[in-house]
Design a protein that fits this description.
The chain is an alpha/beta fold. The chain folds into 4 domains: about 90 residues, no CATH class; about 220 residues, no CATH class; about 70 residues, no CATH class; about 40 residues, no CATH class. The protein is about 45% helix and about 15% strand. The protein is built from 18 helices and 14 strands. The chain has an 8-stranded mixed β-sheet, sandwiched between helices. A two-stranded antiparallel ribbon has the order 2-5. The longest helix is centred in the first third of the chain and has 22 residues. The chain is elongated. The termini are close together.
């Protein structure tokens, strides 16, 4: 993807004048510089100032009150927004260049939504709820046990003794087969609710509201308990055979890098990878690249890691935080894994005390002013997720995260007017996210690789 060299983020030739105006609070001089300097250089000076003043506030010896720093930052925000509005559609070129610099500092974290796994064939949230309702309404929840096959030799080759020991004997080969030992079904009241939600989700599809989807998940959870995620795992991996091209593009940029400004040693290509998805497709893509990595999720009340063999023998690894639960394709004990899928689980995680994984991600990445998140495949229909971002932008105004988002209209090759871009962006800026617009989901892998 060729980049307009005039929009590459870079220091201004009037850097000294910018420094005097910014640190001296000379608003008249700032206005002149913002109007007359090269837009990419002016934006770089302003963004660097915001980053620097917040970074300085985190120093142990800093004694400046955060409210005072916020007030200073707010004074320069109108100049940033004026330049961004003036650039219109072309602002995406500057943003991609800035994101590249942030990633090369190992300070950028992709946040993966359902759209990334859907690109691998995984079902959307509405499809997943529909499939689970369909299966539980039709079959209930089946429990299986191993029993000797009917055509086994008459004399058993093994005998299980009461004291727990095993005695072998006889001849021939014994086989075992799976038999349904128990079927748990909905009560009449539960079935009525399940069928109503099933009909609504089938009719509305992706337009189904979040509350209805969580209710559908809840009625399944009421029937199945933690066994629900055994069904969920099978459904996910039956459809998602391998990582998507977007997973692979992210993995390609996860290789270790030197970041001299952050000290000696190697740093992962991404500060962290954060995902709302249950699947391990991101880990599979990292494994293809032979990148040491560890998946992190909640097991009970503890934040637990699942490192691969490379990570166990490496001085660095790429962390992958699964905010809503984790179930890999391989055999894995999910008994204690905390999932966020049903209404009750959602309320426990988002309306009660913050879980350790949410607090780790929030404090370490979302509300850390010198670390930036890049949302990929996220629809931002989850109010709780948006509330975390609102809280972060309120704490550090002017420190925005970013999102790759599909432009909602057919541009027909024309650049939208600045006021149209401003109107479409406003709903995301409100909770601290700057859109980086694209036209087709097929562009996503290329946009990611552009951050190399």
């Amino acid at each position: 993807m060729p980049q307009d060299p005039s929009l590459v983020p870079r220091p201004s030739e009037q850097h000294a004048a910018w420094q005097r105006a910014l640190h001296g609070g000379d608003l008249s001089r700032l206005e002149q510089l913002a109007l007359n300097d090269d837009p990419a250089a002016a934006l770089f000076e302003l963004e660097t100032y915001v980053n620097g003043i917040y970074r300085a506030s985190q120093h142990p010896l800093s004694n400046r009150p955060l409210p005072d720093i916020r007030s200073e930052v707010r004074l320069v925000l109108p100049y940033i927004e004026e330049i961004r509005t003036r650039l219109g559609w072309r602002i995406r070129e500057f943003d991609l260049g800035l994101l590249r610099l942030i990633r090369r500092s190992s300070a950028l974290s992709p946040v993966l939504g359902a759209g990334v796994s859907m690109g691998a064939g995984a079902p959307s949230w509405s499809d997943l709820v529909l499939l689970m309702l369909e299966e539980t309404l039709d079959k209930g929840l089946e429990f299986h046990e191993s029993v000797p096959a009917a055509d086994n030799p008459p004399q058993a080759p093994i005998e299980f003794l009461p004291d727990g020991t095993v005695r072998t004997g006889g001849s021939g080969t014994w086989r075992f087969e799976q038999r349904v030992s128990e079927v748990r079904r909905f009560t009449p009241e539960q079935e009525q609710i399940a069928r109503k939600i099933f009909a609504e989700v089938k009719a509305k599809g992706p337009s189904t509201d979040v509350e209805t989807l969580m209710q559908g998940a809840q009625v399944c959870y009421d029937l199945c308990g933690q066994h629900l995620f055994r069904l969920l795992t099978r459904i996910l991996y039956t459809r998602a055979k391998e990582p998507s091209e977007t997973h692979r593009a992210i993995a390609e940029l996860a290789h270790a890098q030197d970041v001299p400004v952050r000290g000696p040693g190697l740093f992962p290509g991404w500060d962290s990878i954060i995902t709302y998805n249950f699947d391990a497709l991101m880990s599979e893509a990292l494994a293809e690249q032979k990148i040491p990595h560890a998946a992190w999720a909640m097991k009970g009340d503890e934040l637990r890691g699942d490192p691969d063999e490379l990570a166990r023998n490496s001085r660095w690894h790429q962390p992958v935080f699964h905010l809503h639960g984790y179930t890999p394709r391989r055999i894995f004990l999910i008994t204690d894994v905390r999932f966020v899928f049903s209404t009750s689980q959602y309320l426990t995680v988002y309306k009660g005390p913050r879980s350790r994984i949410l607090e780790t991600v929030y404090r370490g990445f979302l509300a850390n002013p010198v670390h930036i998140a890049l949302y990929i495949g996220c629809s931002f229909t989850d109010d709780a997720m948006n509330d975390l971002l609102r809280e972060a932008i309120a704490e550090y105004p002017g420190r925005y995260h970013y999102a790759f988002l599909k432009w909602p209209h057919d541009r027909q090759g024309k650049e939208p007017a600045p006021d149209e871009i401003e109107a479409e962006s406003a709903k995301y800026l409100e909770f601290g996210v700057r859109p980086v617009w694209f036209d087709d989901f097929k562009e996503l892998p290329g946009l990611i690789r552009h951050l190399q």
